[in-house]
Protein 1
Amino acid sequence: RKEVEQDPGPFNVPEGATVAFNCTYSNSASQSFFWYRQDCRKEPKLLMSVYSSGNEDGRFTAQLNRASQYISLLIRDSKLSDSATYLCVVNTDKLIFGTGTRLQVFP
Amino acid sequence: DTGVSQDPRHKITKRGQNVTFRCDPISEHNRLYWYRQTLGQGPEFLTYFQNEAQLEKSRLLSDRFSAERPKGSFSTLEIQRTEQGDSAMYLCASGQGQEKLFFGSGTQLSVL
């Protein structure tokens, strides 16, 4: 079983839609969690950290469920510029990346 | 530019040759990671350093791979006797403690 699992997608959504991604992790001792964004042929960049109480940054909301060992990312009012791959990252002393979920927003 | 820099950006080599990549992290960062990424996959953990100490090396990594970080500054990743399966993007990232990582642009390796 992979340490971090994500649905690879692609998720094809129209502009303005709300889309949610989930991620599960296997190590219950994981300490911190992140979502990174990666554009085609570019390096990953931090989108947001994920806190136990849930957190929001503009149109993006991240949530953590430690009991079920999953993390979610919700994007509201999708923009064309949100098209990218979203990587779930879990810190178990080292940072482990999921395979990523590809999002394509169309006009 | 005070970001993470990697050199070279691209490397084409013949099977069986040795290659070495360099990463210069953000100067105040004590952690440095190496990842490998192939198309359609997320970055795969290879190894990481805290200052000059190599704390962990992936079990998936063969003995042909070695990394160093002398003096806790820049790092090198060497692949000996390259194979076609080594073709990938090699990403370096640095961070302070267990905080967020900043990635370099990567070295794209093609083994012919």
Protein 2
Amino acid sequence: AQSVTQPDIHITVSEGASLELRCNYSYGATPYLFWYVQSPGQGLQLLLKYFSGDTLVQGIKGFEAEFKRSQSSFNLRKPSVHWSDAAEYFCAVAPYNNNDMRFGAGTRLTVKP
Amino acid sequence: DAGVIQSPRHEVTEMGQEVTLRCKPISGHNSLFWYRQTMMRGLELLIYFNNNVPIDDSGMPEDRFSAKMPNASFSTLKIQPSEPRDSAVYFCASSFGTGGRRTEAFFGQGTRLTVV
């Protein structure tokens, strides 16, 4: 079965600094990959997804992620973080042929003024 | 569309009572998921349905948990009897399509369950 590892439980960055959140997955074939964001007390909102094609994916709110098959990674990046980006970020993986989507443990982002 | 609608938003119940959580997926979506979120275990997939049929319920913790989807626009997750360790936020999500032609999962706002 597929699985996801987010190595960083908590990251703190200064407003305006760049951000990279790590995600590694385990799955035998080409997966579907997702990044979701969750604000306190809210549901999960999709930031971006990778199904196929260009391995650099653009998402909402200025986020992007790059699929690297050789490293089994799908890291999320943003060039300049805003205070409103403080939230919990989840990476998820699903197989091509079914909807069994599994989430990582999440990375909590704190933004310093 | 109003998105995935869950009810209630908050539920407080006593141990041993039956709890029913409800979900209305996005109209036209054919897959529905129930997740549980806790600090200790993160987001766990409990069960998912495709075209109203349960496909994988291996994540359901034990027989006290059951889920149904009587039609394409409604699903329930029932816990009977409830226990304090069931306290969590329960999310419902839905998506459209299958295989290589499917959307991402859209999540509801969740139901925060507290069992005292």
